[in-house]
Amino acid sequence: MEIVILPTPADVARKAADAIEQQVRRGPSVLGLATGSTPLGTYEELIARHRDGGLSFGQTQAFLLDEYVGLPTEHPQSYHSVIRDEFTASVDFAADAVHGLNGMATDPEAEAAQYDAAIAAAGGVDIQILGIGTDGHVGFNEPMSSLASRTRIKTLTQQTKEDNARFFDSIDDVPDHVLTQGLGTIRQARHLLLLAMGESKAEAIAAAVEGPLAALCPASVLQLHPHVTVLVDEAAASKLTHQDYYRDTFGRKPEWQGL
């Protein structure tokens, strides 16, 4: 893992946008997009680079990480709507280039299998953006998820429902079930970009980066991936034991090497 400790959330957003821009400017690319508050700064930075710097997503496809079961695509909290409003509608993705899971599918298992097949048919994900939950979940792979899991239906924990209630009128409106890329699916992306900001994420980051590989912290499985970049601000890094090592090793990495 590359652990990059940055001063502020804005610095995290800029560094993440640098990696994504570098990939997109190489040519046709596939991005894995996450929702939630964590990647918002990165999306705002990419929108600005599209508007002011000519960064084009016209040759880019995108796959969403997850979706609520039971929410139609037009619901304001469906991740189809959220990613459109927060990012994709403000840049130049082709109309059919942004793919998401169908939360209204009558056969969720078939929908999940079809989604994994679609990712494979696109050539796989080049960069997957990830956030991390306070309990160490990535996507909606809650604690005790199979570390080899594929895209599937999952039941949300009470903690995750409480964390996401701020996006709904009440916790009772948060769906109980989701479709999510599995940890095995996520790990097939060529580059994983894990972002975390704020003290509330510090314990989860420490467990994911320095703790044992364990289903209790789903993000710890990323330790097995050959190319993971963890971008954290000072607050999210506050419980890492080896901060000096990360600052010395990754803080001096030549820019030409990218991430």
UniProtKB/TrEMBL annotation:
Record entry for activity regulation: Allosterically activated by N-acetylglucosamine 6-phosphate (GlcNAc6P).
GO molecular function, one term: glucosamine-6-phosphate deaminase activity
Keyword Hydrolase among record annotations: yes
Domain Glucosamine/galactosamine-6-phosphate isomerase: 11-223
UniProt keyword annotation of Chloroplast present: no
Site annotation Part of the allosteric site: residues: S145, R152, K154, T155
CDD domains for the chain: GlcN6P_deaminase
Protein name: Glucosamine-6-phosphate deaminase
Upper taxonomic lineage: Bacteria, Bacillati, Actinomycetota, Actinomycetes, Micrococcales
